[in-house]
Amino acid sequence: MTAFLRFSGRISDLSTDDRRVLLDRAARLDEHVGARVATIIADVRRRGDDALRDMARDFDGVVLESLEVSATQLTRALDALDLQLRRALERARDNITAVHRAFAPVRAECEPEPGIIIGRRPDPLQRVGVYAPGGRATYPSSVLMGVVPARAAGVAEVVLCTPPGRGGAPSDTLLAAAALAGVDRVFAVGGAGAIAAMALGTETVPRVDRIVGPGNAFVSAAKAQLAGVVGIDSPAGPSELLIVADETARARDVAIELVAQAEHDPQACVVAVVVGDSFVREVERALCAAAGVAPRGDIVAAALAGQGAVLGARDLDDAIAFANAYAPEHLWVVTREDDRVLSRVRNAGTVFVGRDASVAFGDYMSGANHVLPTGGAARSYSGLSPLDFVRWTTYQRFTESATRRLADDVAVFAAAESLPGHAAAAQRWRST
Length: 432
Known about the structure:
By secondary structure, this protein is of the alpha/beta class. It has helices at residues 16-23, 31-47, 49-60, 71-80, 83-102, 140-153, 172-181, 191-200, 217-225, 251-262, 277-292, 297-307, 316-326, 338-344, 359-364, 400-416, 420-426; strands at 7-10, 68-69, 108-110, 116-124, 127-131, 157-161, 185-187, 210-212, 231-232, 240-245, 269-275, 309-313, 330-334, 350-353, 390-398. It has 3 domains: 7-27 and 237-367, Nitrogenase molybdenum iron protein domain (Rossmann fold), CATH 3.40.50; 31-232, Nitrogenase molybdenum iron protein domain (Rossmann fold), CATH 3.40.50.1980; 399-431, no CATH class. The protein has a 6-stranded parallel β-sheet, with helices on both faces. A 6-stranded mixed β-sheet has the order 2-7-6-5-8-9, with helices on both faces. It has a 3-stranded antiparallel β-sheet with strand order 3-4-15. The longest helix is centred in the N-terminal third of the chain and has 20 residues, at 83-102. The mean pLDDT is 95.
């Protein structure tokens, strides 16, 4: 095994335990975290705004005069924003808007029999809550990725919660992004308390219909515990990248992409599945070199040692099978048969196709969403889209002749289930 990587070698040579560690990445909730979050939720349910103020003092070290950030503060932050950054944020916002409007769900109707019309209509949610991490790191991209698709879907009101900084307000960059994205209200509330406030409602923070956006273990645990109260997006964990590559790729490019995702977090999961024994060794050398000069080298080294892998595949079929089993958040495909690989990928949050692609483009600027399922959840969840911001209303219409044709068979069903009232309701036309 290569010293700086957790796993190295052929896929076929992985032990049962190694394979389990690679594939079973779903976050295991720390019992302490779960218990602490349950206490926070109960406190917010009982004391509302007072609980949120106490949490800001205890966790963020600030005394909040107001939980809500004024519209004036948002405007001031936007006006003071560096012009180059503002142009980048506006470009990202416009691309995200274009993509998500194009993917917006539409009404559909069908007529299974003459005179029976069944329709399904997407209705935008009334109010959505977006969570954006704060504290040591600021992610304006997370604001855009949560807010803009909600707006594209037609959500009536979008609120944002993000932790206060040392001065009592969220970062100016986040506030500027909120202004550009069209947020209605911003609250300087962070962590599990923010999720509880949006799910349950307090004197100041309104109750929402769905909560989206990334966060730490406490935020994720709060969303999981409140999923029966409010809609949530897919389960979130550390960033992930799986690369499927053959010798048509450049080893240095593969290494750079792995390092870029590894720098997120010591728990980040980065794996290259490579076809060709000599190319495996070339990728390992390039990755060792790139990690050695990475500005966030300590974080990168920890991620590679903890969850990193360069694995040799027998052929592309072998690599595709592993990719579908791994179900990564991000998948980059760079092979001589990119389209064939793409057509057979079934489990991935988003797929980057071809050597000119980069996950960084999707993180910020392409317009696709970067809020994606992790930990193997891509087997059953999709990335954030307008579908997350609507609920569906199904409606049914019947002509008189269709009613008469249906009635007897419905009565037969009702009798089989010992529900005579249903039979009477189906056949009520006979008495008219």
